[in-house]
Amino acid sequence: MLSSILETVMLICFGLSWPLNVIKNYKSKSAEAMSLPFILLVITGYIAGIVAKILNGHFNFVLAVYVINLLIVSVNIPIYFRNKKIETDKYETIRFEIIKNSDLPYEAVFGHKPYWNKDQIEQFKNK
């Protein structure tokens, strides 16, 4: 019984940090400080803990804490991809603004030949 209580205390301590992490990641709108492999590794650890509890027949409050922590950590996955999209959109907008406001050729800004034809690029520049 004491081991279950101590394990629950450990999980609660970890679990209290995850909602704060989710809020911070959501507000930052940046995936720069996030690591998808780390998130997936933590999720894998929680799944392993849940499966171990089930296989050992330990259906108690500790199992519930594992599940709650797993769900909270999992919220970081869609936030990661949302933040990546926000960053990509932001950088693309910056690149297009550079092209629009300068005489630099497309290749100088993007580092590759344009996917658009010259008419489409000129049309964008004239917006």
Describe the 3D structure.
The structure is a single chain. The chain is mainly alpha-helical. The chain has one domain (2-125). 78% of the residues lie in helices and 0% in strands. The protein contains six helices and no strands. It is rod-shaped. The model has no long low-confidence stretch (mean pLDDT 85).
Can you tag this structure with a few keywords?
single chain; 6 helices; rod-shaped; mainly alpha
Largest sheet properties: none
Binned, the helix content reads: over 70%
Which descriptor suits the 3D outline? rod-shaped
Outline the low-pLDDT stretches: none
Number of strands: 0
Cα Rg: 23 Å
Q: What string gives the helices and strands in order?
A: HHHHHH
Summed up:
This protein is mainly α and 127 residues long. It is 78% helix and 0% strand.
How would you summarize the topology of this molecule?
Blueprint: H1 2-28, H2 36-55, H3 61-74, H4 76-100, H5 106-110, H6 118-125
Helix pairs in contact: 1-3, 1-4, 2-3
